[in-house]
Write a structure and sequence with these properties.
2 domains; about 20% strand; alpha+beta; Gyrase A, domain 2; four-stranded antiparallel beta sheet
């Protein structure tokens, strides 16, 4: 079979070149144009964002250059009662809670159930409420806490048998005073 011969006497032009180009070349050209359009939009967005950032930076620099006026009204003195309240709150916030908790947890056997830990930062005392099955477990727990290096003194404050519980556990409270760090 012979290949057909194309005779084209038209002068060369862009339209003629596009019509004779293979389909893959046309699709590639359209894709390249689309990518260029997307890149152009991105460049415009970048310029716009950059101008906005530059304007904000200039405003911040202008604000930083202006001196801040000192407050004209004199400060009112803090009363002694307010100062004591603030100092008590600060002492409570600066409580070595993690170290106290770790010391109590290290000394607590499985036979004792901790119910509450109530720190008093002013007196440096930790009130511990716990339950044990019997008085031997309770006294062993007190001696374990006394051996902890964090606690200077451990005092059994009160104890009682919980009659409402069928197991009749012994509920007790301890005051554990800690040393100043």
């Amino acid at each position: 079979m012979r290949k057909p011969v194309r005779l084209d006497f038209a002068p060369p032009s862009l339209r003629r070149t596009l019509l004779r180009a293979p389909l893959a070349a046309r699709v590639s050209a359209i894709g390249a144009l689309a990518l260029c359009a997307v890149a152009l939009v991105q460049v415009f967005d970048y310029r716009e964002a950059r101008e906005e950032v530059d304007a904000q930076l200039a405003a911040l620099q202008a604000r930083a250059a202006t001196p801040v006026a000192a407050p004209s009204a004199p400060r009112t003195p803090v009363s002694e009662q307010e100062a004591l309240a603030v100092n008590a709150a600060i002492a409570q916030l600066n409580l070595p809670w993690r170290a106290l908790h770790d010391a109590v947890r290290a000394a607590t056997p499985q036979s004792v159930a901790l119910l509450a830990l109530e720190p008093d930062a002013k007196r440096r005392v930790l009130r511990i409420t716990a339950e044990a099955k019997n008085s031997d477990d309770m006294l062993a727990y007190v001696s374990l806490l006394e051996r902890e290096e964090w606690f200077a003194s451990v005092t059994l404050v009160r104890h009682e048998v919980v009659e409402q519980d069928p197991n009749r556990p012994l509920r007790f409270q301890l005051d554990a005073g800690w040393e100043a760090p």
